[in-house]
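Recall from the previous lesson that a structure prediction takes nothing but the amino acid sequence as input. Here we apply that procedure to NADH dehydrogenase from Paraburkholderia rhizosphaerae. The sequence below is the only information supplied.
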Amino acid sequence: MSQKILIVGAGFAGVWGALGAARVLDAAGVRSSDVEVTLISPKPELQIRPRMYESEPQKMAAPLLPLLEAVGVKFAEGSVDAISVQQKTVNVVSANGQMRSLAYDRLLLTSGSKLGRPPVPGLAEYAFSVDRIEDAVALENHLASLAKLPDSPSRNTVAVVGCGFTGIEAATELPKRLREVFGADAAVRVVVIGSQAEVGPDLGPNPRPFVTEAFKSMGIETVLGSSVVSVDADGVRTASGTRIEAKTVIWAGGMRASALTSQVASHLDALGRVEVAPDLRVPQARDIFVAGDVARVLCDDDGHYALMSCQHAMVMGKFGGHNVAADLLGTPTLAYRQPFYATCVDLGEWGAIYSEGWDRQIKLTHAEGKTRKQMINTQWIYPPAPDRAQALAAGDPLATFG
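The prediction returns the following tokens.
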């Protein structure tokens, strides 16, 4: 009977985790009939989530079946809603509601994160997001439908709730998208709302002046220092009493790790991530490894923890895939390390800012930054071609530093 490795989730960590596991088994000469690697996800595609603020989001999915077939990884359609650590099984629910149980010898949990939606009155009913393709498509359809409404300030206004990375990138993309809907001469208004005192609270002092410059050049307004307390069909209200009339509200209020984490560990951080060992193993469940947005782990020797980003998920996935296969074969695992860190923030028609290091030293701005951002968004974060040698090489965690 073959041994089984299950990978839960086909996000960045899951896809590169599958490649990492397949690479270890290939190098060891292990046949797929002896060790099966199965990737579980609702659809055989990687949603290019960092691009959901752009137009035409329906095109931002990379097919996975040819790639998985090239490296001998199976695909199981469905969503995992339960993990039994004791029985070493996962419960998979298909799109039509059918349930089945899959057993594992080793499990790599890469179930990712989702947008946090607090119990703000009206949020669920009236706010849009760019969290998934389906969400971004709903927003795009809504923006297109606004052209049918009578011209008014509220019709032409978008309130973006959240002043972090997603909020900034969504806001700076909107002036152009709104003019495409209403006409080049339309008076459009974009308002960024945040409970923090400054835009981009996690960016630090170096990139922030460029964000401010971009906002000013595009006429983007800010309402800071007060959280949103209600959302309705005509706008939002903040805790300070500010009312913004807007037919479109976009929620970009931060991420939370998949709820599956609580089924494999009791030690979770404030974002719901599992506290894992350096090799990404769950200390309380030694047959389970965790990678991507669901893992809290140091990425260097300077005390920096990996962020919920595709940049960290891709590399962490490689380590997780390598380790889950190596552990099954009885060979040493690798401690996850990712000392290089870069940030590239899209600022719409202004351009983009690219920085390196945790202190975010500015390297590229304006058009040069935009060129780098477009390269990241259209090339670097996509899976490799379905060529076996190329795909297996992409799963090497140590090549990241070579």
